[in-house]
Amino acid sequence: MIRKMMMALLALIAASAFAAVDVNSASEADLDSIKGIGPGTSTRILSERKVGKFKDWADLIQRVSGIGEKRAAKLSAEGLTVNGVAHQAISAPAKPKLEKTVTKATPVAGNAQ
Question: Torsion-angle region of residue 51: left (phi > 0), alpha (psi -120 to 50) or beta?
Fold first, then answer.
């Protein structure tokens, strides 16, 4: 029983590994097969790749208009990689929590209405 589960797990891992599409070697059809990439985006990616291969996700985000951090994360989740590496979300710096302060207005002498 455990052996069958291990084999099924290995098969699942192997199947997901084959689903990865690397942006530096993918054809237009390969790019279009990624959910979230259409003809316009694949054309922009291929145009920029002619200039030079993408070094990393930051390079892809900088050079291809329409791809930002959020979209890069979604495309990576769908199987897109850059040099075989999935997108690692850049954690935004934590916003400091502002404390609410309540001040009571005190009447100023001579301004009675």
Answer: alpha
Q: Report the alpha-carbon distance of residue 48 to residue 25 in Å, rounded.
A: 13
* Helix, strand, coil share (%) of the chain residues, nearest 5: 45, 5, 50
Lookup result for tokens 């993918």: 26
Residue 57 — left, alpha, or beta (φ > 0 → left; ψ -120 to 50 → alpha)?
Answer: alpha
Task: Please list, in sequence order, all residues whose beta carbon lies within 8 angstroms of the beta carbon of residue 86, skipping any fewer than 6 positions away.
Answer: 76
In Å, what is the CA distance from 89 to each residue of 17, 71, 103?
20, 11, 41
Please report, in tens digits, the pLDDT of each residue of the chain (113 residues total).
Answer: 777 766 665 555 554 445 699 999 999 999 999 999 999 999 999 999 999 999 999 999 999 999 999 999 999 999 999 999 999 976 555 556 666 666 676 666 766 55
Neighbours of 42 (CB within 10 A): 20
